[in-house]
């Protein structure tokens, strides 16, 4: 039960406001059911079945460990092998992809590494890396994910030097508070096929109004930072592509 693991803490952004501003029945029928489907999609890389998958089912079928409480989802590598670490990062990349591009729900993820106590049967998860991952995701000003220094050090050097693409990673300095001028590895969630330039502010407007900027400054800042990362990382929509090379298939709706 005790061992070194790569762990990720994912926070559902705006969860508290969604709880306060919606009837609980609406919330469970829409937000929770969608997020379970998103988790299934991220684990299996395919559409979920008609019957809503349970978290226990996903745990049994998944190559990564899963736990969920309120607005926080814990994911962890099931062992300390390179392949288990890679699968964890890949799963988070798919979860970020589907939530960023197909639903109002957005998440951010901090990833750390170290010794943890993992008791799946009793759902007890304890360790400094869990705390570090939680604090690191809270520093990030976007809907995205990144590795802290301990997680960065766990990634094999040959992966960083030759082909982080295979691990769904990209060197990037994520928007964090307070600002840090340090090299990070971000989760490259832009890999799935999607519509060209998908980051309009809303269905009605490409950018927020001045009133929205004043009313929701934190939300607007996260949107800008997420949009900037997409423009930097995406091989489908990147600035260096010619327009005819940019068109992409739309992701299926969950």
What does this structure look like?
- The structure is a single chain.
- With 254 residues, the protein is an alpha+beta fold.
- The protein has one domain (2-189): 2-Layer Sandwich (Alpha-Beta Plaits), CATH 3.30.70.
- The chain is 41% helix and 19% strand.
- Strands 1, 2, 3, 4, 5, 6, 7 and 8 form an 8-stranded mixed β-sheet that branches.
- α2 crosses α4 (82-102).
- The relative contact order is 0.15.
The gross shape turns out to be globular
CATH architecture: 2-Layer Sandwich
Number of strands: 8
Low-confidence stretches: 242-253
Compressed to H and E, one letter per element, the order equals EHHHEEHEEHEHHEEHH
Category from helices, strands and their pairing = alpha+beta
What CATH calls the topology is Alpha-Beta Plaits
Biggest sheet record: 8 strands, mixed
Q: End-to-end span in angstroms?
A: 35 Å
Number of domain modules = 1
> How many alpha or pi helices?
9
Assign a percent range to the helix content.
40-55%
CATH-defined superfamily: Nucleotide cyclase, GGDEF domain
Task: Supply database-style keywords.
254 residues, Alpha-Beta Plaits, globular, disordered C terminus
Topology:
Elements: E1 2-12, H1 15-21, H2 24-44, H3 55-61, E2 64-69, E3 72-77, H4 82-102, E4 107-119, E5 124-126, H5 128-139, E6 145-147, H6 149-154, H7 157-162, E7 169-171, E8 185-187, H8 210-215, H9 217-233
